[in-house]
Amino acid sequence: MNRSYLLVICLLFASFTGCIEDAEDEVETAPEEEIIRDWDFFPIGEGVTPSTNPSKLLAEGHHDLVANLSNHVAIGIVNLGNRSVDFNASFDQDHPMHFLDYSYDFDVTENSSKVEFDLVPDGIRILILEINSTSDFNSAVISANMNWDGGSSSKSISLYFNYVAKGERVEIGDTTYSYYSGFLERNGKLFDTNIEDVWDNYGYFWKETADANPHTATLPADNVGCNGTGDPSEDCDGSRQMILGFDQGMVGMYVNQTIYVVIPPEDAYGKTGSNALAGETLIFSIRIVSVEKKEIPMSEIRAIVTTDNETDSKVNGNEQVTFTFSATDSVSDSTITK
Predict the structure, then answer these.
(1) What is the model's pTM?
(2) Tens digit of each residue's pLDDT (9 = 90 or more) over 192-207
């Protein structure tokens, strides 16, 4: 019998004859992919050295703060599973700190003590906490949850705070030395740092960074806040050396202070271009460890003094002059004699 006629007969009488059962048995269905739900929740190091042992970094979760200044610390959440998942993190609303609301794709609520967001597989979210407190705020517990239809998972980490002295303020024209780490905002991958602890323990590297040689020397930056010689201050004798967003973040900081800055592409490596970081929004941690003030040449020093006859007199920097005044008076109120 012709094979086409046989097929028609089978289709018409399949429910009675079962003549296509063998064909159905040959169809194989692909096994469903195993659902993996896993994640990590961790503090991010800052390269802080305790005064008791300068050769070692502070233990994980420990941070140096400067009392009564804005200080930033950061924590990370990474989705290690193979499904997009919702997350949230929170802390006691009585703590003198809050989450920075720096991204359009997460929600900060409950007086900035809670943040909610979703993460794709292998995605990392860096959460920045701003702390402004007196020295009696020494620790905080941050709780986090991963939520999915029909289930959830919870973790928590403890942060500990040590208070250090406020150092010199960074002003326009200064040279700074700092520790830093740089992350991609969109996925939290590390692309650069000079902090040994971060090199060793962060673990989530941008593809261009994976083979980089770790470097741990402090970062020097001349002419902070300067657009060029004399712009915007006479203290500028050249242009800034850092990208604009990093440079602007340092102006006004103090030695021992740590902040995180979120830098859009136009203030980083540009919206387009040949640089591998072009078009990327970046997150930098910055910790100032020392500042060099601009030296003023003697030829530029000027002073106004009150002479014996009470007339104002200019003293040029190339003159050798001895001033005497009472230590109990301010200079502006003292009678200074030449």
Answers:
(1) 0.78
(2) 999 988 888 898 999 8
Find tokens 């050249």 and name the residue.
Answer: 238
For 237, phi and psi rounded to 5 degrees? Answer: -115, 25
Residue type at 115 in one-letter notation: V
Rounded CA gap, 89 and 97, in Å?
Answer: 14
As a whole number of angstroms, the distance between CA 116 and CA 273 comes to: 34
Distance CA 44, CA 198 (A): 7
Structural domains present in the chain: 1-27 (no CATH), 39-163 (2.60.40.10), 175-292 (3.10.50.40), 299-333 (no CATH)
* Rounded alpha-carbon distances, angstroms, from residue 72 to 60, 65, 257, 266, 332: 16, 8, 8, 24, 39
Q: How far apart are CA 161 and CA 156, in angstroms?
A: 17
pLDDT digits (tens, 9 = 90+) for 143-176: 999 999 889 999 999 999 999 999 999 999 999 9
Please give the single-letter amino acid code of residue 306.
T
Reduced to 3 states (helix: H, G, I; strand: E, B; else coil), residue 286 is strand
Distance, CA of 206 to chain centre:
15
Residue 271 bridge partners (DSSP):
none
